[in-house]
Amino acid sequence: MSKIGKLPVAIPAGVTVTVSGNTVAVKGPKGELKQDFASDVKVEVKDNEVVVDVLKDTKQANAFHGLYRNLIHNMVVGVTTGFTKTLVITGVGYRAEVQGKILMLNLGFSNDIFVTIPEGLTVTADAQGKVAISGIDKQLVGEFSAQIRKLRMPEPYKGKGIRYDNEVIRRKVGKTGVK
Question: How far apart (Å, rounded) are the C-alpha atoms in residues 141 and 81?
Answer without folding.
Answer: 14
